[in-house]
Inverse folding.
């Protein structure tokens, strides 16, 4: 009994430390964003302080660019996610329901591209996009995000569609529905959880992505992470006040979103990885 | 009639459905990938026609100490980061499998870093480690240790990147391993208990063998993805100080977009590609078998 008691205490302490490790850096960013600049630099760092919105005001006044970039991020994330979801669901349906050799091989080849390091294609694509005057447009950013998330999404959707018995669709087809009607009316509602999973994973990726946005955008289609990195590496050192405010604005919506649909995120992640 | 015609019509539908995905991946990934190889055999920079030079870029790169250094750093980085992520991920997964009250809340809090962008991760950790006002610096200062030079010292700079990387990426391992642990039938643990197995023995002989597939998958993926790390390093140190955090992806970026040696950049890309496929060969083979055996039942 006594050993069990000690074990429980050790487990609770470990859990507490683990939560601290994950949450402390995030909490400090959010907290600091409400600190007066004088207090941000206080030594020792204070946990209790009078909250102020002055950093957010500074952000609005000094960095209007950030809000422009935030809009870009939102648009790019939304459009990319919708495209990824649509085309990967269609492809996954085809791979799942028509399992002949050519289709299987194509499915494998597409899914294997997930291993491809994204930075490798920046070298051939940069001169090409430059030639076509496509640099710094949302179009290429969306194109790149779709490319690098469509293979995982197809794989996850395939796993979900595989779990829906074909008989259901066949029954509907016997009743006179066309194949697409059967898919649309029978299968689609059943794979809705899978579609949520894919959307969450894709949205997190697009909202947070740094490398492609850094290389392929400049001003017009710049995204929020890029502007934050500019504040971080300013000529006269980081501007911590606006930096914390913008970081908070960038991270909170995604964190809340991920927590809200956590169940689907976990399902999608584990299906995407372990089913292989 | 028309069985033949029906079939043909049926075969057209799936090809039609996969066209968008195939087109995008071919146009943006496979063809540029092949084009990369072509560029790697040429002297090439913006605005000029590529000049064929054979393996010159490969020889040049292999005789560049910065490149050799980048490979060694990269392997160290992958080894340390993936080991830490794995150990922490496994510990967290085992802990979560104890089913605390409010289980879901703890899972949410622990996997939170997953939702944070690389740039905000750097903001967060730079804040904690800042020598002037950081919390971690303060704690260290109580023990008389100064963090002032950490980002300027080659070893500690790399270490900080490893820590940030571990923080960002361990939730992936945790979730994969946790999912595997929860599917182990309770009877197996009960049987081991009846046989008088200790806690460690149950972990070693029941839990661990049951999650080996998940372990292999998690390690494969994390090795590949850690190998190509770019964001956190570029945002935090830009490869410095003195190239001490210039791993291959940073070297590729510098060669291509700073020195404008696209041929050399493409060569580094091919080296990264080869490494990636070597590491994932076993996984890809398993995937190939699984997918090609579909539809035969």
């Amino acid at each position: 009994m006594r050993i069990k008691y000690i074990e429980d205490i050790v487990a609770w302490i470990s859990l507490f430390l683990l939560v601290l490790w994950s949450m402390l850096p995030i909490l400090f960013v959010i907290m600091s964003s409400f600190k007066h600049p004088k207090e941000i630099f206080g030594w020792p760092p204070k946990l209790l302080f009078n909250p102020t919105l002055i950093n957010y005001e500074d952000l609005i006044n000094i960095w209007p660019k950030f809000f422009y970039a935030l809009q870009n991020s939102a648009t790019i994330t939304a459009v990319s996610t919708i495209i990824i979801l649509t085309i990967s669901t269609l492809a996954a349906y085809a791979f799942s329901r028509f399992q002949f050799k050519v289709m299987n091989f194509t499915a494998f080849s597409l899914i294997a591209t997930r291993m491809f390091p994204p930075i490798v294609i920046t070298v051939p694509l940069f001169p090409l996009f430059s030639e076509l005057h496509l640099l710094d447009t949302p179009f290429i950013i969306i194109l790149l995000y779709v490319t690098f998330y469509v293979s995982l999404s197809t794989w996850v959707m395939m796993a979900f569609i595989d779990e829906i018995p074909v008989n259901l669709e066949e029954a509907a087809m016997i009743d006179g529905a066309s194949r697409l009607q059967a898919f649309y009316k029978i299968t689609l509602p059943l794979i809705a959880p899978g579609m949520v999973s894919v959307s969450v994973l894709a949205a997190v990726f697009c909202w947070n992505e740094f490398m492609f946005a850094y290389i392929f955008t400049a001003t017009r289609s710049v995204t929020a992470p890029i502007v934050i990195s500019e504040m971080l590496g300013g000529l006269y050192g980081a501007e911590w006040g606006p930096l914390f405010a913008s970081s908070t604005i960038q991270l909170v919506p995604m964190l809340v979103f991920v927590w809200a649909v956590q169940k689907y995120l976990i399902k999608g992640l584990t299906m995407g990885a372990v089913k292989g | 009639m028309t069985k033949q015609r029906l079939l043909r019509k049926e075969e057209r539908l799936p090809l039609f459905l996969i066209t968008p995905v195939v087109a995008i991946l071919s146009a943006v990934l496979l063809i540029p990938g092949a084009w990369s190889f072509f560029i790697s055999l040429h002297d090439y920079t913006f605005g000029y026609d590529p000049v064929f030079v054979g393996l010159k870029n490969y020889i040049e790169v292999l005789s560049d100490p910065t490149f050799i250094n980048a490979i060694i750093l990269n392997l160290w980085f992958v080894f340390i980061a993936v080991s830490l992520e794995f150990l922490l991920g496994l510990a967290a997964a085992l802990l979560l499998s104890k089913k605390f009250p409010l289980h879901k809340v703890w899972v949410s809090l622990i996997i939170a870093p997953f939702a944070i962008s690389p740039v905000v991760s750097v903001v967060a950790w730079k804040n904690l480690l800042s020598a002037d006002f950081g919390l971690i610096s303060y704690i260290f200062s109580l023990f008389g240790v100064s963090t002032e030079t950490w980002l300027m010292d080659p070893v500690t700079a790399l270490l900080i990147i490893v820590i940030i990387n571990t923080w960002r990426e361990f939730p992936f391992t945790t979730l994969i391993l946790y999912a595997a642990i929860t599917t182990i039938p309770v009877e197996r643990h009960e049987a081991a208990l009846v046989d008088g197995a200790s806690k460690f023995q149950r972990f070693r002989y029941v839990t661990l063998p049951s999650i080996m597939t998940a372990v292999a998958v998690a390690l494969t993926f994390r090795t590949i993805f850690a190998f190509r790390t770019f964001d956190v390093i570029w945002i935090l140190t830009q490869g410095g100080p003195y190239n001490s955090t210039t791993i291959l992806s940073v070297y590729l970026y510098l060669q291509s977009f700073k020195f404008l040696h696209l041929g050399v950049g493409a060569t580094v890309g091919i080296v990264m590609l080869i490494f990636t496929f070597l590491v994932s060969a076993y996984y890809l083979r398993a995937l190939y078998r699984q997918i090609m055996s579909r539809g035969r039942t």
In short: The domain at 53-274 of chain A is CATH 1.10.3720.10 (MetI-like fold). Chain A has one domain: 53-274.
